[in-house]
Amino acid sequence: MDLLGTILNKMDGPPPASEKEKKEARDMRSKIEREQRIEKSRREAFRKNILTQIGVFLEDGTKKRVKFSPMDKIMRSIVHEVAETAGVIAYSFGSEEVDRHVVLFKKEHAPSDEELHALRNGEVYSPTSVKPTGEGATPLLGSTGQTSSKPVGPVSNYRDKYKHLISTEISEPAPLKPQPERNFGFVPSSNKRDVRSIEETLIDLRTKKKAKLEAPDDS
């Protein structure tokens, strides 16, 4: 035998397995196949159960959503698949391998973005706690960028300038009307600082005018 033949003989495969080893391999293969059949049967039963529950959910007009117990990823994928086929919205919430679960929603009662955000954070969603944002939201008083539909004009008086600090429930004072018997040229005498001096001035003017009229004409 030449050198090449010797090398080829040494490169032959492993010795054939014994009958015992062959039997162990057959048993292992049978066990795996049996477990696969059991798992497949379990998933099919679970799928039918979910399909039944979704059917009951859709027929119940009082329910808007249904929450399932926590389950593994494979089972959740089955719920999502059946829900999509039935035309139902499905979302998963919670932590993996802790409390991850599926919630189904009817399409006409789909959750809002705010509710989804709360559920994904493990919070209890309350519509009244959501602050309005974007167009159509009422701006807060004193907030930056507040706009008003009223025309902007010069402030004419103290009350207009500070009307946001003065109660609007206080009635405006009635305007004062001049009294003819106490007026001098429609100027209220109550507004004069020295009424007597004005009267004396008028008398003096009348006296001078009268004296001028009574004076002889030198021409």
From TrEMBL:
Residues of the region (Disordered) are 1-38, 125-156, 170-191
| Species per Swiss-Prot/TrEMBL record | Amphimedon queenslandica
Listed name of the protein: R3H domain-containing protein
Indicate the segments forming the R3H domain, all copies.
Answer: 44-108
Pfam families according to UniProt: R3H
Q: Which residues form a coiled coil?
A: none
What are this entry's molecular-function GO terms? nucleic acid binding
Q: Where is the composition biased (Basic and acidic residues)?
A: 18-38
Q: Which gene encodes it?
A: 100632326
Q: Where is the composition biased (Polar residues)?
A: 141-150
Q: Which superkingdom is the protein from?
A: Eukaryota
